[in-house]
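Reply to dn_fold:

You asked what the input looked like. This is it:
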Amino acid sequence: MKGSLVNQSLALQAEGLYPRACKTLLQVIELEEWICESVEPDNSTPKKFAESLDKVLQGRSDTTVLVAGLHSLGDVLRLLGKPDESEIALQKALSIAKHQNVERDFNEILLSLANTQTTFYKRSLDRYQLTEEPLAKDKLQKQVQDNINQALALYRQIANSERASTAIQARLNQLSLLLEFRGTVSKANSAFKPLLGNNKSQIQQVIQPLLTAQFAQLSAIPSIYAQLNFAQSLIKIGQERELRQFLFPAEKQPLFTALSLAQQSLKAAEKLPDIRVQSYALGTIGKIYFQLERTERAKPFLETALGKAQSIRAWDIAYQWQQELARLYQATGELDKAREAYAAAINNLDLLRDNLLSINSELQFSFKEKVEPVYRQYMKLLLASPHPDLERTIQINERLQVAELENFLGCGKLDLVSLDKIQAAKNPPAIVHVIQLGEDVEVIVRSPDRSLHRYTQNASSVRSYVDNLLLNLQEPRFVYTDEREILTYTQKLYNLLLAPIKSYLPQSGTLVFVLDSPFQNLPMSLLHDGQNYLVKQYGISVALGSQLRQPQALQKKQLKALIAGLSEKSPSFAAPNAPPNLTPLPEVAEEVADVKANTVAAVELLNEQFTSDRFRQQIDRADFPVIHITTHGQFSSDPQQTVILAWDRAIDVRELNRLLRNRAQNESSSLELLVLSACQTAKGDKRSALGIAGVAAQAGARSTIATLWLVDATSNAQLIGEFYSGLKNGLDKAEALRQAQLTLLSNPKSQHPYYWSSFILVGSWL
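and this is what came back:
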């Protein structure tokens, strides 16, 4: 019975139904189904899984079926994006097989372990590419190197095994990994260049036996996928001139070899009832013809491949052929069809995003290389038209930013509202989108009358001023920097980004900025028109995820707050993910008192009272429309480094989600305002504001106020006091923050930008 369940799970895997395959295998091992569920990553989950596994395996005698079940479970967990749990299951299978003398090819389990190490490599690389904080980046660089070295070592070991079919699979996966790493280094990841070493020779050693391999030694469907895998690798080789010339005497030989393999695969696939493998074969042939510049031959293969993928609702395959068709239609001048294909690819990616963690780990860990380019290519095409579709462009930009935020958090879909769908306010704000697309920065403004206007700037000049300004802002001695030096950059940026669209902006009111990732750490209130800072004229809100919860004014009766603060040195200062060089914040006690005085009701957790458990208990017990946290913390583009410090330990962004999840799902007790005071962005991390957006999204907050750098504690407390006083007097959040900033700006002792411009409002401005 249990043996048939293992076979049933293999059939489900072949159809891409990994969650169902996982649950089927758990019946074999007699584990609870929670391990198969899609949940936010939690460092405790692998340990919990290992303990559960040890418990159920005690005294089991059905070792042959158990090893097969654990082996298959390890493969499924990897495909579900759970490599830590995958490694645990596979190591357990290997251990039982060796100690109980189970008749099984150990190399098959080792091959699965090598594939899991490859997934570790992809996860580490994805985090490395998304992270800019120097310390985190150094740590991730070492992880990337360790993961790829371990994977390659295992593949080499298995490639020398006597069983030909296992050796072929190992060589194919080794080749794919070597080529993928080579492509990563070529995309300006110079930190990894020393690792390239004899990469070309390694590829040559792997590819030679594959060119003469007998793929028929594998069973039917694995044989087809193996040939298509090899064909995909040959396509990559054909695209790189240096590597192609090193490996093949004739220029187009790798592509013709790939074409022959794919055609053989298609013939074999057509004899089987497997639509999925037929789609892969057809699409691969179409891709090769496109590379050979035979677009008319490529088109029917790609279109048929797409039709087959759609017929079985295989959206993870369909989006790939739609992206390939979009490029083909662009090449042939069929721009309407290209736009339709890109739109369809993005719709399919959105369908997948609901289950990004449970269906396709390849998408989860390759966001920047496989997902983001589809959105950006589509936006470039939309704007290249003689009549650019600005409306559609900003919609796609919103979807990209939310997809990036969800990928950062490792969660399913967020409950956010498009800016375009927000109900009309009495005084609607102007919305300014700043998007980088290749060599251009596109500034698109939606005026209060809903008309759209566009201006294009050269990206290198804008980025130069942004990068230099951010270097100054993140300097520990920023407070001593001459204000005129700051104005050099902020006036240039105003002239580049806002001056060309100034006539489309209102004279006063609120501006909402939707900032692409290179610009998210930029405090827009600091931009200067030569006479005044932008904050003198406008209240400013940013939508870091490009979408937000429905704006709603904060009523005076809603000023009921949970106030948590840390003014003394605590055990959490020594947490491994705490920011370095922390000192006590005695002014926090004054800030807590000011917030309490300006609310209608408050619960205070100060110092020893602010433990993670007490914080959770208060959230569970009472309805607080306002949560104010004033403590050391850090926002980073690495979610594990995005933390706030409670008395006992650091709480990262994902744990904050678990603490606030229940109330976020209840609209009647929604979190109207989250204030994160005394936190800072990770130094040197140009994408660290993504961490602010992540905290805001995970908390389910309608509005969030945070700081872009660690501010002087006295001025911090003063600004926060003024802000709450404004809320108490009926001002909306954007105006209350503006007035608080202007109060500091008018005081000679705090007029330097260091004191007031760090504060940003994320989300609803009302």
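The longest strand covers residues 626-635.
Hope that clears it up.
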